UniProtKB/TrEMBL annotation:
Name of the protein in question: DEOXYRIBODIPYRIMIDINE PHOTOLYASE DNA PHOTOLYASEPHOTOREACTIVATING ENZYME
EC number(s) stated in the UniProt entry for this protein: 4.1.99.3
InterPro entries with a match to the protein in the record: Crypto/Photolyase_FAD-like_sf, Crypto/Photolyase_N_sf, Cryptochr/Photolyase_FAD-bd, Cryptochrome/DNA_photolyase_1, DNA_photolyase_N, Rossmann-like_a/b/a_fold
Natural source organism: Wolinella succinogenes (strain ATCC 29543 / DSM 1740 / CCUG 13145 / JCM 31913 / LMG 7466 / NCTC 11488 / FDC 602W) (Vibrio succinogenes)
Phylogenetic placement of the source organism: Bacteria, Pseudomonadati, Campylobacterota, Epsilonproteobacteria, Campylobacterales
Key word Flavoprotein present: yes
Top-level taxon: Bacteria
Binding note for cofactor: Binds 1 FAD per subunit.
MF (Gene Ontology): deoxyribodipyrimidine photo-lyase activity; DNA binding; FAD binding
Binding site for FAD: 207, 219-223, 253, 256-263, 351-353
Cofactor: FAD; (6R)-5,10-methylene-5,6,7,8-tetrahydrofolate
Keyword Lyase: yes
Amino acid sequence: MKSLIWFRRDLRLEDNRTFEQASGEVLPLFIFDSHLLSPLPKEDRRVGYIYGEVMRLKSELRARGLDLAIFYGEPLKILSRLKEQGFSRLFASQDYDSYALSRDEAARELLDCRFVLDNYLFDPNEVLKKEGSPYTIFSAYYNQSLKILSEGHYAKGLDLPKKLAPYPIPAPPSLESMGFSPLPLLESLKILPQKRLEEFSSKITRYALDRDSLEAEATSGLSLFLRFGTLGVREVIRRLKVWQEEGIKVAPFYRQILWREFYAMLLYHFPHSEREDFKPMQMRWSESQERLERWQKGECGVPLVDAGMRELNHTGFMHNRARMVCASFLTKNLHLHWSWGERYFASKLLDYDVAQNAGNWQWCAGSGADAQPFFRIFNPYTQSLKFDPKGEYVKRWIPELRGISTQNWSSEERWEGLKERYLAPIVSAKRSAQEAKAMQNTLRVSS
Ligand code: FAD
């Protein structure tokens, strides 16, 4: 029997469950999905990153006497053509967003499909409440998963012998032929994922203390690699176990890895939460395009919010604390629905993943399964003072503020006196927060 190994969110050979399980005559393949790529701008850096990783995967496969057939087009049409060439079985890693689920359902109609758990630690039906329903409270999910994790070994699987099936491997499409400009790879992406994990060894002891600091660069920087599976999450767990045995306090890092699992599980069981409130909110949302555009450009006149958005626009990344402040500001100060911000992040974040993005946006907005309550509203000035006390982060992204003492944006009142030196704030953080709370209270009472 000839099998296809379809690489998707698992762009590596090392510890890849899908690749390991296939045996016999195989054709490894990757599809640049025209349905997903066509709405993206020519300069989308993610496509360039994936392209580089796919080409690397191809040469690694060739070094093993295999190869990678790279296609551009509609996956189902391509699979259907391959079926005509005698391929009857398909191995691929599980993927849970609504597009992926319906695509894979259609693939099942064509081929004998084995969807393998690889990109996450748990199948969405693995960590459930006693009566079998999904958890919606993170701490309960976390405790249960931690128990399973502490008992599991997460050893590498058995790489079954395979042989390249006879098939004329096509020349890979170029980035240009798919409508993209080849852009230089960002410096931050030039590092190998395994090296980044290795380097994190020197930071893990301070992670709990410094992970929220905008100045300390204390986080792992692994999200992009986990997103595309260039680093396997089981490798991260194995490393965490070693650190734990060395007496390092790793719980705060486990927590973040398990938030990732939690959001993937939630999206699987509650697919509407990809675009709609998990818990419907009572709020009169603004429809102001001007507010949205100023937020997107990092021109709200609020230092930390502008710095975060400029970091995103320049690098495709944003520190988690800044993501939280920018998301809170969009929803609770500018009164725009979270989905507007979610779509913008989706267009810019290198590590964009619908489950993580929508889940976190809903957490910040207050509509999520286990969210920050709507009435808890970040004050962006206080957040600056707390997490960027020397103003290094803000000044890196807003050169206009370099000559100004950070004390000036440590509170809204102080900032008021400085507003002619920069953009005047789009709204008063305090007043807009009070308005949001009042609006919520009124609508809740009258509904
Ligand atoms: P670390 O702090 O080193 O964390 C280690 C890993 O844990 C991360 O690589 C990531 O895989 C996971 N993780 C950490 N924080 C979270 C979290 N809050 N939720 C889920 N997983 C987490 N993360 C994405 O991967 N893709 C997204 O599209 C995304 N969108 C976000 C949108 C908003 C509004 C917010 C507030 C957060 C979002 N996050 C998203 C979560 C988080 O900001 C990033 O995962 C984190 O900043 C990545 O940096 P790191 O790898 O250095 O994280």
